[in-house]
Amino acid sequence: MHLGEIARVFFRLGLIAFGGPAAHVALMEDELVSKRGWVSRQHFLDLLGATNLIPGPNSTEMTMHLGYERGGPAGLFVAGLCFVTPAACITGVLAWIYVEYGSLPAAGPFLTGIQASVLAVILGALWKLGNKAVKNAKLAAIALLVSAALFAGLGEIWALLLGGVLGMLGLRAASVAAFAVALIEPARAFAASAASSVTLPKLGLFFLKIGAILYGSGYVLIAFIEGGLVDDYGWLTRQQLLDAVAAGQFTPGPVLTTSTFIGYVLAGAPGAVVATLGIFLPSFIFVWVLNPLIPRLRQSPWTGAFLDAVNASAVALMAVVTIQLARATLTAWPAWLIAATSAALVLRTKINTAWLILAGAVGGYLLA
């Protein structure tokens, strides 16, 4: 009975979800926890922590989890499809323009304002989630340790696992003498092959493999694409890769719709469809399997402690990403002005985030 509501909510979020995974999570927290009450803030944190431990685009997998909570397995698929579809369609249109005219439309002034507004939305969610996740001094210490590890260059997944193991041992064990966390670099999931012509099965399999093993940010996706489609297959030039990344950055929704752009450039509309399905399909399967297990994990004292620590670590990760986004975004006075105004509105009012982002885009254009 909730499928229509799920479709409307996530289609709208897919249209305004600028700024990457941290921003997407902030928008979902504001809309579905604070305003609609679909799940408690604690359960939202549990879902977020679990999502960070599996491959795939984290924010898209959060939409699937929340869709499952509201409408069961059917809700999972409706939420994921409605969140991804707007971004994939917009990116596909940009890819068509790129192929037809050889360049992308200029969106710099609008993007400056959008990014500054989104930064304020993230800060608001970080404040609310942090108050819930960092419940005591031990969890605060774990969050600080994970933040330090991330700033030192430790990969996101290993930092989260480190925080989870520390928390499980520190919160549940009476005394722990020592422990070790092995850092294993994931093996490349695709073997180098000679340059060959583009075919839909090869293209789909390439992105399916990436979707099944991709941890971390969109920058990890870029590394896979450069190693596979540029160096190994010779299907794509580096300039085309950079243009595809740019298209993924200034469109709403998941950054992984970069695959839509690349698929269109390589094989037209069928290539765009195959690449998009390939990279997102594993996430639907992972979430379908994982979601029913999360309440059971919460019930066990040991795995509950692990979840608490992972939640605090996930908030630390979100804080580090926010700092990095602020460094990249707040480079001129218009961005500072839009960000400060947006932050005041987020913290002191209940303004709809869609209007806030739209106002940021208009402000960025006018101040430019």
Written description of the protein model:
This protein has 368 residues and is an all-alpha fold. It has one domain. It has helices at residues 3-16, 21-35, 41-51, 58-101, 108-133, 137-151, 156-172, 200-213, 218-232, 238-249, 258-290, 294-299, 301-329, 333-348, 353-367. Helix 5 packs antiparallel against helix 13 and helix 6 crosses helix 13 (301-329). The termini are far apart. The relative contact order is 0.18. Mean pLDDT is 78; it is low at 174-195.
In short:
The chain is 77% helix and 0% strand. With 368 residues, the protein is an all-alpha fold. α5 packs antiparallel against α15 (353-367) and α6 (137-151) packs antiparallel against α7 (156-172).
